[in-house]
Design brief:
398 residues; 14 helices; 0% strand; binds zinc ion
Length: 398
Amino acid sequence: MFAKKNRPSLSSSLDVQSNIEDEDFILRKRIRDNSPIDDRLDGDSESLNLASDEEEDIPGCPLPSTPEDNELLEAEMTEVLKAGVLSDEIDLGALAHNAAEQAEVFVRKVWEASWKVVHFKNLPKWLQDNDYLHRGHRPPLASFGACFKSIFRLHTETGNIWTHLLGCIMFIGATIYFLLRPAWQINLEEKMIFLSFFIGAIVCLGFSFAFHTVSCHSEMIGKLFSKLDYCGIALLIMGSFVPWLYYGFYCHYQPKIIYLTIVIVLGFFSIVTSLWDKFSTPQLRPVRASVFMAFGLSGVIPAIHYVYMEGWFNEISRSSLGWLVLMGLLYILGALFYALRIPERWFPGKFDLWGQSHQIFHVLVIVAALVHYHGISEMAMHRVSLGECDIKHTAIVL
Ligand SMILES: [Zn+2]
């Protein structure tokens, strides 16, 4: 490359190879300089940066670009190619194949870095979910790298992604803090009971974050992760019941086991329903909200039982039930926002990026989980203050 003008004869195949590489570089440089892609990406600084990054990746230094040099190089290139083809040293088929592959990789990289948000009507059918959100949708991004990079771009899913990503990180932190408490403060059995709630919350928020991040990858991945998202909700409800039933029926072994069994069966039913292909379609949005709401509301039965056992106007039952009722109301409110798509149904196209129903639902889920954590912590403290059971493992006849 540095001694082009003093290039020796073309007899050596090594030289032919070196020349071809040089010409290939010139060609690629020219293609980039005159690329129609640049027109498409006009004004997009990100893609321009990528183009310059690509340039830095290519070894060697820039060639002189005077017209005389270009003419000379073109003439030499023709000679080189002729000699190569005639001597069978260049496989044109392989060259064409390589060039096509390189071009494909390049275009894909540019596309991934330079995609622009699209209108709802321009989305493929499998990405059309909420028609009250007009602009700002991600187009299909057929690579996980591009999906995860989209976390840092502004579109209809940005709020959904970040609400549950931050919520997930917060609960991971709370779990580590809780598990590291010394044993004299919280014993191992209680840590395991609380852990079921923490795992439910982390899995639910984590799956939700993952779903909203990769939902635009492809129809297959979108469906798979939406199923995981629903399974996460079922796990959160199950995990929330465990500590509540454990402390609520601390000294009443039989009802505790019966209620826990019912919760596990209902949770299993919700997960199986979530795995049903049609469950994630927009038409079944109210059905989805109803299934999880019914599962959550099934907690009313053990709650009434608990109050009957503890006494209706007992301070303890009022306090622990108060938090439980507040949690239930927050979940119901969230499910209503989600199912009815409020507020965007009243102002279509006005809540495309911020304030849409799904973001409100996400925030309410996090607040409800925090309220529940506070509620079960109070129940646990109350239980500790009471000491051991008077009559351990008493069965209550239902
Ligand atoms: Zn969500």
